[in-house]
Design goal:
alpha+beta; 5-stranded antiparallel beta sheet; 3 helices; elongated
Length: 163
């Protein structure tokens, strides 16, 4: 690495609220939001209409921490963009490639269209299950509790510390 270059990790952040906490972990609830209301299209958008039908739901995740947290505390959690991209690729590519693979194998074996469709649906199911198994081995390793809202942020400059 050349002098002056830095590694920058881009994090996506989300506000959450602590539901329960102990010394090492906290159950944090975040609200799932849609992108609706973010653009100027408004009422003529189909996605906006669907978002009004489906209510916002909350998600809860248990995260390790070294902060002093109590139920009701507002916190910021984060996930590295690279981890989000890997998860998205896993969730979409594995099932799609499995579906196409099954369909191609059955088609090349000479079976008719009905069997190709059934095979592709079987491949899709197998791909979804495989992606689920792969992801369950690392359930929330990339999501971290960054800070408590209202607490002071400490910035450490590792380049200028003495060894």
């Amino acid at each position: 690495m050349s002098q002056g270059s830095e590694i920058v990790y881009s994090m996506l952040e989300q506000a959450g609220r602590v539901i329960e906490s102990d010394d090492t972990s906290a159950l944090v609830e975040t609200e799932r939001k849609s992108a609706c209301g973010q653009c100027g299209v408004g009422e003529s958008c189909g996605t906006s209409s669907l978002a009004k039908v489906f209510k916002t739901r909350s998600n809860a995740i248990r995260l390790k921490h070294d902060l002093q947290l109590r139920p009701g505390d507002e916190v910021i959690i984060g996930i590295p963009e690279s981890s989000l991209m890997r998860t998205a690729l896993l969730a979409y590519m594995v099932p799609m490639l499995s579906m196409l693979g099954f369909a191609m194998m059955i088609s090349l074996a000479g079976y008719g269209n009905v069997f190709v469709v059934l095979g592709s649906m079987t491949g899709l199911y197998c791909g979804i299950r495989l992606a689920s198994v792969i992801r369950s081995r690392n359930p929330s390793d990339a999501i971290v509790l960054l800070r408590k809202v209202g607490s002071h942020t400490v910035v450490v400059d590792f380049k200028n510390t003495q060894r």
